[in-house]
Amino acid sequence: MISSKSKNTKNLIKKLKKGLLLRKVLHLIVGTGLAVAFYFVNKDLYLSILFTLSIATMLGYSFKLDRLGIIKKVFFSVRKKNEFVAEGMLTLISSFIIIAILLEKHFLLFTWLIIFSDTMASLGGKMFGKTFIGTKTLEGTLFYIISSLPAYFLSTLSLESFLLLVILSSLVELSDKIEDNIGIAVLGALILSLNPVPFFY
Question: What is the pTM of this model?
Answer without folding.
Answer: 0.81
